[in-house]
């Protein structure tokens, strides 16, 4: 039974969560509750719960601050965050603290149970890793070499002692010469795979623990690097690269991903640490690689994720990042014109910032847009994932080329979104959608479109929803406000003119409808995003 600590300053929410846990049927029990940060930290130190649920807004300190204190001592305990605010800044900080999930109030029992299951899976994975390492057969030299590597990376013994043993086994062939880089490879669940291959990869056959290590060695040899691999757990492998430049490391990771896909029929996400100059620094590099790989749940699976790309950005210009939500909204909608308009202004502002700050900002935006690719089933994910945007961005060194690359990437994602939505829709209804976009100013709506399409209004209404997935009214409303947002980005246009162009004769009614649809009045929208 896993012990859960609930930290929330509202009594009724704590009681509601306790009831959800009791009714979930999961092997989880609420061992303690706290209404403030001081009590939460005391209970954590005294009771060491297995899972911690933290409200972000507490009377004495932020739940994020509590998590930071815990993470200074403990990188393992699964953390769940609960808040009433869907804040980009909060989400970013939660990611940097290796949160299992970020839940919004009021949370449903389904979402809460799913988060608890993910926390349970994290605990099982960590415990399985420890058990497998403890029972590894040290008398077998290949397994003993893996054991030594994990001793060093996971700091199970003093580094100097492990390095001496590695020298005694003449491991210099795998570990000669800096820089050293660690790859954390997370194997994803197989979709379709032969039983024999599955059992071999999972360690069910004699000597199978070397299968992945062999692939890593071959991939490194193909790029001129030295490699030494080890199995951390059932689905996690670690690779130590020596004498490898950043470009060589990237190419090796790409070779590993391709080999695993082709020969083991498995997808793999690979986190890459920053290079270090001494073997004694490898434990920190290992932690960086793990943290990068665990980001795959946010940026998409089967990705190569450099650690540098996941570090939380703290730019001085919060005004730039305020455009994130608008940018993502327009990309998700596939509105090329709006994306171009925002990018033009955004790029001009970025051009005046230091290179390091530019890289942090654009990387954070890429992370969020990658989540669109991962979560939106309508997007052609395979072709987009093959681009490895984080990897491409990590190798750029100059601000203008970063801005140019990210701008092109955003436009490409928007195009994929639009094309994916249009795919499979008969040409006749493509023309119907085009007609709606071109006639937003006109009255008549469905009846006028029915005349244009030579159909009865009733039949057109039914077929339109069947083919496009949206009713005529819903589609027309969405297009009106998408177009309104585009037009409002042009400060030369008055609000009354924008209202008229999208079919509102009354400016006041337009303002009310715009706020109901977007949460902001047209004037507030301009102040926020321009």
What does this structure look like?
With 530 residues, the protein is an alpha/beta fold. It has 4 domains: 2-132, Response regulator (Rossmann fold, 3-Layer(aba) Sandwich); 141-188 and 208-309, Alpha-Beta Plaits; 317-416; 427-529, Arc Repressor Mutant, subunit A (Orthogonal Bundle), CATH 1.10.10.60. The protein has helices at residues 11-24, 37-47, 63-73, 88-96, 109-134, 141-153, 159-168, 172-175, 195-201, 211-223, 246-264, 282-293, 296-299, 318-321, 324-333, 336-350, 355-375, 381-385, 389-394, 399-422, 427-438, 445-453, 457-468, 472-488, 495-501, 507-518, 522-529, and strands at 2-7, 28-34, 51-55, 79-83, 101-104, 180-187, 226-231, 236-242, 268-272, 304-306. The strands form 2 sheets. Strands 2-1-3-4-5 form a 5-stranded parallel β-sheet, with helices on both faces. Helix 15 (324-333) runs parallel beside helix 17 and helix 17 runs parallel beside helix 20.
Quick rundown:
By secondary structure, the chain is α/β, with parallel strands linked by helices. The protein is built from 27 helices and ten strands.
> Any idea of the CATH topology of the largest domain?
Alpha-Beta Plaits
Radius of gyration over all CA atoms, rounded: 27 Å
CATH superfamily annotation of the largest domain: Reverse transcriptase/Diguanylate cyclase domain
Low-confidence stretches: 136-140, 191-209, 312-320, 377-386
**Largest sheet geometry:** 5 strands, parallel
Task: Say how many strands there are.
Answer: 10
- Content of β-strand: 5-15%
| Total domain units | 4
Structural class: alpha/beta
Overall shape: it is: globular
Assign the CATH class of the largest domain: Alpha Beta
In DSSP terms (H or I, runs of 4 or more residues), the helix count works out at: 27
Strand order of the largest sheet: 2-1-3-4-5
| Name given to the CATH architecture of the largest domain | 2-Layer Sandwich
Whole-Å distance between the termini?
A: 52 Å
The pLDDT mean sits at 78
Protein name: AraC family transcriptional regulator
Modified residues (4-aspartylphosphate): 55
Pfam families: GGDEF_2 (PF17853), HTH_18 (PF12833), Response_reg (PF00072)
Organism: Paenibacillus terrae
């Amino acid at each position: 039974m896993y012990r859960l600590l609930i930290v929330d300053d509202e009594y009724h929410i704590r009681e509601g969560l306790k009831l959800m846990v009791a009714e979930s049927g999961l092997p989880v029990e609420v061992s303690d509750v706290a209404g403030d940060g001081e009590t939460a930290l005391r209970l954590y130190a005294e009771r060491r719960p297995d899972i911690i649920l933290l409200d972000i807004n507490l009377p004495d300190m932020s739940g994020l601050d509590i998590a930071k204190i815990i993470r200074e001592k403990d990188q393992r305990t699964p953390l769940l965050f609960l808040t009433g605010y869907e804040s980009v800044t909060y989400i970013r900080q939660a990611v940097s603290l290796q949160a299992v999930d970020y839940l919004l109030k009021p949370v449903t029992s389904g979402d809460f149970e799913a988060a608890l299951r993910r926390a349970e899976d994290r605990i099982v994975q960590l415990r399985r890793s420890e058990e497998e390492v403890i029972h590894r057969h040290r008398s077998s030299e290949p397994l003993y070499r893996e054991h030594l590597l994990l001793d060093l990376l996971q700091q199970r013994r003093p580094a100097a002692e492990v390095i001496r043993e590695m020298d005694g086994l003449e491991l210099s062939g795998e570990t000669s010469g800096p820089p050293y880089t660690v790859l954390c490879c997370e194997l994803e669940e197989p979709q379709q795979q032969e039983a024999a291959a599955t059992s071999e990869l999972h360690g069910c056959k004699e000597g199978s623990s070397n299968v992945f290590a062999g692939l890593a060695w071959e991939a490194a040899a193909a790029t001129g690097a030295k490699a030494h691999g080890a199995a951390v757990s059932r689905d996690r492998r670690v690779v130590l690269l020596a004498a490898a430049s950043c470009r060589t490391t990237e190419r090796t990771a790409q070779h590993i991903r391709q080999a695993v896909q082709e020969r083991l029929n498995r997808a793999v996400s690979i986190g890459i640490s920053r290079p270090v100059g001494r073997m004694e620094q490898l434990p920190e590099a290992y932690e960086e690689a793990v943290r990068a790989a665990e980001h795959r749940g946010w940026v998409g699976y089967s990705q190569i994720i450099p650690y540098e790309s996941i570090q939380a950005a703290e730019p001085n210009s919060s005004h730039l990042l305020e455009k994130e939500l608008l940018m993502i909204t327009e990309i998700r909608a596939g509105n090329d014109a709006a994306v171009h308009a925002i990018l033009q202004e955004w790029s001009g502002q970025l051009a005046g910032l230091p290179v390091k700050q530019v890289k942090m900002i654009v990387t954070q935006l890429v992370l969020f847009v990658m989540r669109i690719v991962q979560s939106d089933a309508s997007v052609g994910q395979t072709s987009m994932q093959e681009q490895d945007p984080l990897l491409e961005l990590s190798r750029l060194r100059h601000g203008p080329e970063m801005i140019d690359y990210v701008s092109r990437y955003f436009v490409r994602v928007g195009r994929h979104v639009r094309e994916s939505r249009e795919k499979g829709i008969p040409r006749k209804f493509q023309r119907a959608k085009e007609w709606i976009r071109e006639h937003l100013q006109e009255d008549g709506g469905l009846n006028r479109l029915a005349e244009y399409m030579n159909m009865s209004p009733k039949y057109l209404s039914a077929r339109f929803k069947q083919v496009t997935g949206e009713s005529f009214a819903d589609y027309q409303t969405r297009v009106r406000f998408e177009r309104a947002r585009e037009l409002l980005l042009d400060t030369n246009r008055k609000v009354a003119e924008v209202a008229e162009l999208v079919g509102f004769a009354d400016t006041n009614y337009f303002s009310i409808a715009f706020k109901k649809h977007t949460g902001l009045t047209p004037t507030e929208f301009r102040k926020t995003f321009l």
